[in-house]
Amino acid sequence: MKFYLPFFVVIMMCTMLLSAVHSEEVAEPTLVIEMLNKRDKERMLYSDELVRVEVGDTISWVPTSKGHNVQFVSVPEGVEKVKSKLSKEFSYTFEQEGAYLYVCTPHASMGMIGVVIVGNTPSDINLDEVKKYKFRGKSKKKFKKILKSLEDV
């Protein structure tokens, strides 16, 4: 019994330590964007295709049906491009100003794209890089619409 007690105490302490490490708080999203199969006559889209947020804000993308994800394909210099898993909620906290272009990997050519502008900087901070992305199919027309919306702001 003497051998098992110290072993048990060590195991309990490790469990408590791991629980504390994994219980870090997740930021409450500033904005929620839904990944949609359809809305009115449009198919395969995000509920918001152009949004503006501040540095430190968090966006959560929520799938309303299976088969969607978020993949950052153009980001400001120094920011890592990330890709979420299919059909899973995904949250991202924006730590750097600039323009972030994201797509739904399976539906990008169907026009399922979006842009996040972070900060109060000019909207063209890295827009030239975003424009270099090779848009395919309906995403070409959708991006032109998003660019026009940026100019109107």
Protein topology:
Layout (H helix, E strand, L loop, with lengths): L3 H19 L8 E9 L2 E5 L3 E4 L4 E6 L7 E4 L15 E4 L4 E6 L9 E6 L8 H5 L6 H15 L1
Parallel strand pairs: 1-4, 3-8
Antiparallel strand pairs: 1-2, 4-6, 5-7, 7-8
CATH topology: Immunoglobulin-like
CATH class: Mainly Beta
Helix content: 25-40%
Largest sheet report: 4 strands, mixed
Given the structure, what is the number of helices?
3
Side-by-side strand order of the widest sheet: 2-1-4-6
Summed up, the domain count is 1
Q: What fraction of the residues are assigned to beta strands by DSSP?
A: 25-35%
Fold and architecture overview:
The chain has helices at residues 4-22, 127-131, 138-152; strands at 31-39, 42-46, 50-53, 58-63, 71-74, 90-93, 98-103, 113-118. The protein is of the alpha/beta class and 153 residues long. It has a four-stranded mixed β-sheet, with no helix packed on it. Residues 7-25 have low confidence and may be disordered.
